[in-house]
Specification:
Blueprint (H helix, E strand, L loop, with lengths): L14 E3 L5 E3 L8 E6 L6 H12 L1 H6 L2 E6 L4 H11 L5 E3 L4 H6 L4 E3 L8 E3 L2 E5 L5 E6 L9 H13 L11
Parallel strand pairs: 3-4, 4-5
Antiparallel strand pairs: 1-2, 3-8, 6-7, 8-9
């Protein structure tokens, strides 16, 4: 059975290596307001390229709001490094090596390859907005590559959330 994260509750522990060195650990060195964790399918996904380049272009806007952005996948180090080069996402923290167990703990859906250019198994997209205290503010998970948030729209919404102290919603688990 598939499980999901519940807003207002702590997110699962997560540490993955970053392209260029170091690690990303959820809520280590937490920013002032939020961390946006983008889970993307991997180098094989052209829709992911569009999403990550969109967010890279708005990193300054998110930073001005006290928001950090990181993108994670199940790709290998080599594929993640190629992603950075081929997609022009320099400046965006790019993590790799997400495991199946980590993906499942976060409630991500997994898919198997349908083309030779895809990894054997990879996670479908998701986006977590995590508060500095390690609790989930917002969770969006998909079973297919489409239907992603746009960076400019999300920055505007989160500016409103911050300025108006908008509360966590969706806390009543079904």
């Amino acid at each position: 059975m598939h499980s999901t994260l519940v807003p207002g509750q702590p997110v699962p522990a997560l540490t993955v290596p970053l392209v260029g060195g170091g690690d990303f650990t959820v809520n280590a060195d937490a920013p002032e307001n939020f961390t946006i964790v983008i889970f993307y399918r991997g180098l094989h996904c052209p829709i992911c390229k569009g999403q990550l380049t969109d967010f890279r272009a708005k990193l300054h806007d998110f930073a001005a709001l006290g928001i950090d952005v990181v993108a994670l996948s199940m790709n290998t180090k080599d594929l993640a490094e190629q992603t950075t080069r081929d997609w022009d996402v320099s400046g965006l923290k790019l993590g790799y090596g997400l495991t199946k167990d980590q993906a499942k703990a976060w409630g991500l859906f997994l898919s198997s390859a349908i083309k030779d250019t895809e990894p054997g198994v990879f996670s479908e997209p998701g986006m977590a907005i995590v508060r500095p205290d390690g609790t989930l503010y917002h969770w969006s998970v998909q079973t297919a590559p489409f239907g992603r948030a746009k960076a400019a729209e999300l920055a505007g919404v989160l500016k409103y959330v911050i300025e108006n102290d908008y509360p966590v919603r969706g806390t009543l688990a079904a």
